[in-house]
Each structure stands twice: as C-alpha cells, then as structure tokens.
Design a protein that fits this description.
Blueprint: H1 3-18, H2 25-32, H3 36-39, H4 46-63, H5 79-83, H6 85-100, H7 103-115, H8 120-147, H9 157-178, H10 184-205
Helix pairs in contact: 1-2, 1-4, 1-7, 6-10, 7-9, 8-9, 9-10
Amino acid sequence: MNTKEKIFDVALDLFSKKGYDSVSLREIAEEVGIKKSSIYSHYPSKEAILISIFEYFTDLFEYDELLNSKELVLATDNDILTQNPEMFYHIGSEAIKEMFSNERNLKIWKLIFIQMHYNEKIRVFFQNEILLKPLLFWEEFFTILQEKEIIQKDCNPKLLAKEYYSYPIYLLLEICAKYDDIPQDSLDDFFKETEEHVKFLLDSVKLN
C-alpha cells in the first residue's frame, strides 16, 4: 500500500468512527506516520479525501463485474428477471455481499449513514447515490414484472420500490448504529433478512 492509499484508509477509518468534521489533517497524518504537509502531495485538502472516498464508492457500483452482468439487466427479455424474480434479486444480493466483504466498503456505508445530517456533500451523496438511483432501479424492476403480468396490475411500482428498499436501509442503519466495526455474522444476517423480505413482498403481489 502506497502513501496515498494509507491516507485514504486512515482518513476513512477516522471519518467513520469520529465524524468527518471532528477529524483534522494533522490527526490523519499522525496516524499514517507522516507530516501534515506531506498529505498535500497527494490530496489538496481534507475535502478532497472525502470526495475521493465517494468517487471510489460510486465506481464500485458502476464498474463491478457482477453487478453489471447480463443476468442483472433490467429488460423484459431477461429470462431470469421475468421467470424467477427471486433469483434475479439473489444474484444481485450476492454481488453486493461480495462487495461488502471488503472492510473499506463497510466503513464508507457507516460514514454515509452517520454523517449525512452533518455534512452537505454527504447528504447530497446519500440522496442521489443511496436513495434515488436504487429506488429508480427497483421501480423499473416492479414495472417490468407488472408489464409481464407477474404481479398484480393495480400495484404501484414506485410504492413497491419504496416498500422493498426501506427495509434494507433500516437494517443498515441499525447495524451502523450498533457497531463501530461491523461483524461478519451481522452482515450475513442482513443479507438473509433482505432476501426473506423481498420474497415476502413478491409473494404478496404475485398473480399466481
């Protein structure tokens, strides 16, 4: 790990535990084992470190091979989606689970949840990347199921998306509030419960 990566990881660890505004560049430098002035060779400011954390996190979803596989394409001709929507969800869930097996990524989730009320950039990032984009994805998911007459015609895809997505968000908030370092068994329980929830939701609106 080079110095820039060490700065990134140390800053993320401190941000996720103490809050972005409570951490100074001097503290980051001391944890890394360098002088404060040395940070400027890699990042022009503390905010630049925060932005790099968000860019890294966004790129995870945009370029992850599993999440962007043909199996997870939202399309009416995707047989997995239309013939077995539970499996479609499971494949995506496994991809996210693989991503969350990285401790760095878990710390970013915690940083976002804990700090979104105290930092405008984190709040906007949460609204756009954590709420808006996933909700649009799941609204399209339920819309396709409705068009293919898999779920009831009088269902509201937008409402179903919110109903589905609110539950995992709640579980993540609960985990982040409970632990400084999220244990693997809690993460395993999270994915198990979310899959049970989506099955329950689909069963309640399916035509057959």
